[in-house]
C-alpha cells in the first residue's frame, strides 16, 4: 500500500483526488494540506510515498515546496497537478525535484497512471511536452528561442502571478516573507525581461496572464 499526500488550496480538488486515489487497492490518502507550512509538517509526520502538489498555494509556492521536500525528504516522490501552462512550468518543476507534471484538466483520466509512473521512479509528462523535450535534446526542435515569460526566474514568475492577482508590493512581500525592496527589485527585473515601460503595464500584463489561466 502506497501512501499519498495531497497539497492543494481548493477543497473540492483535494476531495476529487482523494476519491480517485481511494478507489485504487494499492493506494491510500495519508493526509491533505492547503498550504506550504502544513504540507511540510504532514510530510514529516505521515511519511508519504508520494506528494501531489499544486503550484499555486494559499501560503507559499508549489515550486518552493518541491525544493524543500527534496532537500529534507529525498526519498519522497512528487507529482505536480496544476492548471498552469505545462510548457512554461514542467521543466521548472522537474529541475526543482518533482518527477511529473499533470494538467488538472487531464487529471480525472490520468491521475492514477501518473501516480504509479512517478512511484516507479519514472517521469510523467504529456506526450506533447515529451516530444518537445526530446526534439530539444536531439537538435530537431523547430520552436524558436525562449519566450519572454520563460526567461523569468521561478521567483520572478511567482511575483508576476501575485501581481496579476491584485496583490500590492507590501502584501507580496508579506506573503513570500521577503522585504519590500526585494519585491521591488523583482518587479524591475520582470519589466526589463518582458520589455514593459511602467508599473501599470506590468499590472495589466500580469492580470491578463492570470485571467487567461483561471
UniProtKB/TrEMBL annotation:
Biological processes, Gene Ontology terms: phosphorelay signal transduction system; regulation of DNA-templated transcription
Stored SMART domains: HTH_LUXR (SM00421), REC (SM00448)
HTH luxR-type domain residues: 145-209
One Gene Ontology molecular-function label: DNA binding
Keyword set, alphabetical order: DNA-binding, Phosphoprotein
Gene3D superfamilies, per the entry: 3.40.50.2300
Pfam families: GerE, Response_reg
Modified residues (4-aspartylphosphate): 54
Domain Response regulatory: 3-119
Protein name, UniProt field: Response regulator transcription factor
Lineage: Bacteria, Pseudomonadati, Pseudomonadota, Gammaproteobacteria, Chromatiales
Amino acid at each position: 500500500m502506497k501512501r499519498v499526500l495531497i497539497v492543494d488550496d481548493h477543497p473540492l480538488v483535494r476531495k476529487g483526488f482523494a476519491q480517485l486515489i481511494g478507489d485504487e487497492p494499492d493506494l491510500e490518502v495519508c493526509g491533505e494540506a492547503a498550504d506550504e507550512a502544513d504540507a511540510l509538517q504532514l510530510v514529516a509526520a505521515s511519511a508519504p510515498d508520494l506528494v501531489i502538489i499544486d503550484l499555486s498555494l494559499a501560503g507559499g509556492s508549489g515550486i518552493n515546496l518541491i525544493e524543500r521536500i527534496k532537500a529534507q525528504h529525498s526519498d519522497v516522490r512528487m507529482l505536480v497537478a496544476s492548471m498552469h501552462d505545462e510548457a512554461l512550468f514542467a521543466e521548472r518543476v522537474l529541475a526543482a525535484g518533482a518527477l511529473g507534471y499533470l494538467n488538472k484538466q487531464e487529471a480525472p483520466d490520468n491521475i492514477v497512471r501518473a501516480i504509479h509512473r512517478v512511484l516507479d521512479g519514472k517521469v510523467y509528462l504529456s506526450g506533447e511536452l515529451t516530444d518537445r523535450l526530446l526534439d530539444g535534446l536531439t537538435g530537431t526542435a523547430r520552436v524558436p528561442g525562449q519566450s519572454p515569460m520563460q526567461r523569468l526566474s521561478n521567483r520572478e514568475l511567482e511575483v508576476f502571478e501575485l501581481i496579476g492577482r491584485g496583490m500590492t508590493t507590501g502584501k507580496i512581500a508579506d506573503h513570500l516573507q521577503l522585504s519590500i525592496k526585494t519585491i521591488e527589485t523583482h518587479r524591475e527585473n520582470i519589466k526589463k525581461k518582458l520589455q514593459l515601460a511602467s508599473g501599470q503595464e506590468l499590472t495589466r500584463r500580469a492580470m491578463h496572464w492570470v485571467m487567461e489561466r483561471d
